[in-house]
Amino acid sequence: MNLNMHSVESLVAQIQGLSGNIGELTQLRSYLKHCDDLLRTESTRLAPLLTELDPSVHSLGYLYILEACTSAPLSKDQANELVLSIARFINVCAAEQIRLAPEKFISICKRFKEQVVLLDDPMRGVAPLLTSIRKLQSSTEQLTTLHPDFMLLCLLSKCYKIGLSVLEDDVFEIDQPRDLFLYCYYGGMICIGQKQFRKALELLHNVVTAPMPIISAIAVEAYKKYILVSLIHLGQFATSFPKYTSSAAQRNLKNFSQSYLDLVNNYSIGKVSEVEKCVQINKDTFESDNNLGLVKQVVSSMYKRNIQRLTQTYLTLSLQDIANTVQLNSPKEAEMHVLQMIQEGDIYATINQKDGMVRFLEDPEQYKTCEMIERLDLSIQRIMMLSKKLTTMNEVMSCDPSYLGKVGRERQRFDYDDFDTVHSKFNI
Amino acid sequence: MDFSTLNEALAFKSYDKVADICDSLMFQAASEGVSFQEDWPYAIHLIGHIYVNDINSARFLWKKIPLAVKESQQEVSTAWKIGQRLWIKDYASVHEAIREFIWSPQCQGIMSAFSEMYTKRMFELLQSAYSTISIQDTALFLGMNEDDATNYAVQHGWAVDPTSRMLTVTKQAVVTEQKLDHSILQQLTEYVFHLEH
Questions:
Q1: Which of A91, A127, A353 sits opposite B134 (nearest CB)?
Q2: Are residues A245 and A337 in the same domain?
Q3: Do A369 and B129 touch (CB under 8 A)?
Q4: Inter-chain contact A351–B133, Cβ cutoff 8 Å?
Q5: ipTM score here?
Q6: Is A143 within a domain?
Q7: How many domains, in total, are found in chain A?
Q8: pTM of the model
């Protein structure tokens, strides 16, 4: 069946007529699904149809046609036009309508991202992809498959701050596991760029410990960065994995990160010169992994660690002694380091320039203020919310057939009375 | 490009909003495929980031600025110089960089607001970190000459020893009003009760 003039008009008419409410839209969606093959074969002739539709009102129909149009390969000029038209569509489309055909929407957004990267102008895609995420999500707790694409564009265009704003959302629902790996890896890199090491550590930890039957390149790279960020933020690295890490990760990740583990060993000894030697030896590996900048930050964090270690032994210490112990060049340098640490809250101390001494102090926080109460309050509310979510998830899972099937199979291992209520159909 | 939101913010002295406004205007321009780099107000954009102490974003913005603009627009490179010095924590030279340039009318307001804020911030840092400090260093940190620095410090309660040219820091007892909202205490009591049952 060819898409002749009559069919084209009826297609447009159908879209225009059936875009009024959810009932009509569902009808329209089945109609469009029927026409899908047609749209694909006639894709080169569809562009003029778009001019007869309003993307904000006829979003679903417009989406189908746009997606069919864009499936063909393009020249550079056409790519520019395409990027513009998709960006405009994303901005004005109606969220409820595009959510009726999420695969189509995702398909044009992915195409959009590809073209933007090919045009070497990733910043063009940042704002539209953010809009598309917000329109596609059913809530801010859902991680869509577009999230990692957005993160990638933020990284490529060096627009880290806007990436951070999305990372602040807590994720409870994921469309595909692969999305989580990429999202957390890219997200970790964005946090590193904004020097938010605590959050970076959390995200990279997720990649390393997520369930995986076999390890992936993403997990390997994430592990390397995880080691470095752990050194910068915590001053140490625990080589043992948490219990919930997959066995594949536990067995294999370390094999790919030998240089990094050497760095950990030298770091824990505490001598800056040794660490710098280790960096020199492994420089090529660090460079080809694009981690040299991070490694340098590890080295400079050593001065901070070493000064912090001094607070455990001394109440007061001269600037000269600090400089000697920590391998700095002069008491003035030591003074500047201590000043910076005081500013960033890494140490509690006062500098006495007259005597050239530093006095180390206790944390002055008394936990008695209104701000503390507010913080406690917020934390408790968060935990209560999390606890409720976990209970709901547990309940949903205990009704899941595949879970019950496994439990049924394992039945012999447990006391019969515990699983009395499991239907015999599950006893395989 | 419509910069009216930016100009409004500048007119109302909402300097802390400048960076966010510039960022969203830039994304808008980029997504429309418009070539905006030549006319973009990079100087004010950079200063906006510096004003809210987001030197990371200022760094990334600097990396994106085309070389031609960096070389021709001196205000942009001077604004970056300030960011750079803040980045490497060269506290004293920040004042120099602010002072040695005659800022355009658009940047004048935010620059002087930043300068004041920075001096105050430096003073608070000195107050929290030092028990005694030389007049010379104080002057450097505050970007004033030694006499002005001494007067500023004395006004804030510090003691001066003219012979050794040293200032003794006195921390003002900071009295933050502890307004105890009884409902919060009630809530906490309820939590504890809930947890124990």
A1: A353
A2: no
A3: no
A4: yes
A5: 0.87
A6: no
A7: 3
A8: 0.89
